[in-house]
Structures are given as structure tokens and as C-alpha cells.
Amino acid sequence: MTHTITVIRGDGIGPEIMDATLHVLDAMQLGLSYEDADAGLMALEKHGELLPAATLESIRRNRIALKSPLTTPVGGGFSSINVELRRQFDLYANVRPATSFPNTRSRFADGVNLITIRENTEGSYISEGQEVSADGETAVSITRITRKGSDRIVRYAFELARNTGRKKVTIVHKANILKSTSGLFLKVAREVAAEYPDIEANEMIVDNTCMQLVMRPEQFDIIVTTNLFGDIISDLCAGLVGGLGLAPGANIGADAAIFEAVHGSAPDIAGKGVANPCALLLAAAQMLDHLAMPEQAERLRKAIVATLEAKDGVTPDLGGTGNTMAFAKAIAARL
């Protein structure tokens, strides 16, 4: 069966790592076809807008997108395009695996293998009620948690555990202080957990979670939490396995899914050909799982691992002297 994928090449190093990723996917001969769509600074230059209607329509039609990083200004400028994409398609589940790979900077010899599932559409990122007082002295933002949003993200976590053979879900919250918002999330999470007696469920306050992750990450299997906490924890987990260059992400909704490298656009190294394509390649593996091709997803992951073991063509961030496309070609050769 042929699948058409909306491809967003992104900003900075985005086009380079996308070319590398598509090279590997083409080598796998999966019958995929690609439909290019623009977003970010490239779209602004070409179309005068950051997220053209044609891009939204392409995602809506194909229901699957593979996306390179998009620039988001810090402290001002335009709002996050990533957040807008999640809002447009109600991509409520952000799925971030953190897995140890050979010859990386991971500090844990026993290996890390966990997944953070972050609610993706509400919480502190709803972009409502954000304002700064006229005197510039006070800033206000709304945080909104709903029963519906909490139920579906926690249910997604337990279903993923059941379907993938994972045994434990840790519900992360701050209900001791944020008794309304985090309190509602925890209350709903407990109700959902009771429906899955085959999966162990435990609860952990977010600050303790961060401490436990850096001390004993092996105690975690799946973490489920709200938007802001999940954003922070998932990057912490990436640090446990060697950094964001090995961190893929999936944004899942009922009608569409977007798979991405979660690192930034790295304009300082754009055009130099030294960007590590692994995060986007691992996101492509998540995409293959979503497309009901688990054997091919595993085939891709094993080729990445074998290439890292051999240090064949790997990029400077992983201690090698290769470049982006050399790395991709080495992976493709092991398929």
C-alpha cells in the first residue's frame, strides 16, 4: 500500500536532515511518496505567511506529516508554529521515547528505555489570556486543564503500555500545590488507571520525578503528564541518552499525526552538512509504527544502532568526522 507523506523541510538544518532521512526511507523501498509543504521562515519568504493554508490542507488530506525543526523566537516575535499545528489538528498526545544508543554521551551503563507522554493541547500552552500590564510590571497567563483532555492522554498512555508490552505508567503531577489544575489531572488519571488492572500505576510529584530520573531512570517505563511538565521532563530524558540529537517526537491526534525531530533549527551550523539526522530518522521510525509497519520501523532502528556501534560516518556531535549525508548513507547501507 502506498502512503503519501506531507514533508515539511523546516528552517536552519531542517532541509539537510530531511534530505538524509528521505534518502534512508527511499532505500527501504516502502512505497512512500512525498508531498512537499512549507512552514516557518521559508514559508514566510515564499508565501508571506508562516503557516500557509496549502500546508494545512496537505496535512489534512494525507493525515501524516514528517517535519524538520521550525524556528520559534524566544521572548517575542511570532508564536510557535508547532503549537499552532497541534491546535489545528488536535494533536493531543506528544510521544517522546528516550532510548540509550551505543557510542553516545549517555551516563547510564545499564541503558535507559522509557517514554514520556505529554498532553499536547491545553495546560500552560493554550495561548489564552496572555497579557502584560501597561506598566510592564505584571504578566498573566491562563492555565486550563479539562477532564476530557486529561482522560484521553492518560488513556493513551495505558493503551500504549498494554499494546507494547510495557508494564508501568507513572502519573506525574503537582497536585500538592496546584490543587485545581494538577489536582483535576490526577483525579482523572486515577479513575482511568483503575480501568487497567494489568498495568502497574504509580504517582509522583514532578520535582521528585526529575530527581529520580537523574538518579535511577531504570525505575520508569511510561511517564504521562500535563503539557508544561511533559515538555521539561522529555528534554531531561533526552539528556539521559546523549542529547536532543537522538530525540524523536510524535504528535498524535484522531485524524492526523505529525512526526518530528524535537531539537531546534540550529542556524549556527545550517549549510555546513554536519547536523546529526538521527532524531528525524527515529521520528520516521515512529511514523512507520503509526502506519502499521512495525517490522520496518524496527529494521530502521537496528540499522541506526549498527551504524552507531561501528561509528561509521557519524557526525561530530557523536564523536565522528562524518557529515549528515555520509551518516545517512551508512545507515542505508545497513538496511
TrEMBL record:
<comment type="similarity">
    <text>Belongs to the isocitrate and isopropylmalate dehydrogenases family.</text>
</comment>
<dbReference type="GO" id="GO:0006099">
    <property type="term" value="P:tricarboxylic acid cycle"/>
</dbReference>
<dbReference type="GO" id="GO:0004449">
    <property type="term" value="F:isocitrate dehydrogenase (NAD+) activity"/>
</dbReference>
<dbReference type="GO" id="GO:0000287">
    <property type="term" value="F:magnesium ion binding"/>
</dbReference>
<feature type="domain" description="Isopropylmalate dehydrogenase-like">
    <location>
        <begin position="4"/>
        <end position="331"/>
    </location>
</feature>
<dbReference type="GO" id="GO:0051287">
    <property type="term" value="F:NAD binding"/>
</dbReference>
<protein>
    <submittedName>
        <fullName>Isocitrate dehydrogenase</fullName>
        <ecNumber>1.1.1.41</ecNumber>
    </submittedName>
</protein>
<dbReference type="InterPro" id="IPR019818">
    <property type="entry name" value="IsoCit/isopropylmalate_DH_CS"/>
</dbReference>
<dbReference type="Pfam" id="PF00180">
    <property type="entry name" value="Iso_dh"/>
</dbReference>
<dbReference type="InterPro" id="IPR024084">
    <property type="entry name" value="IsoPropMal-DH-like_dom"/>
</dbReference>
<dbReference type="GO" id="GO:0006102">
    <property type="term" value="P:isocitrate metabolic process"/>
</dbReference>
<keyword id="KW-0560">Oxidoreductase</keyword>
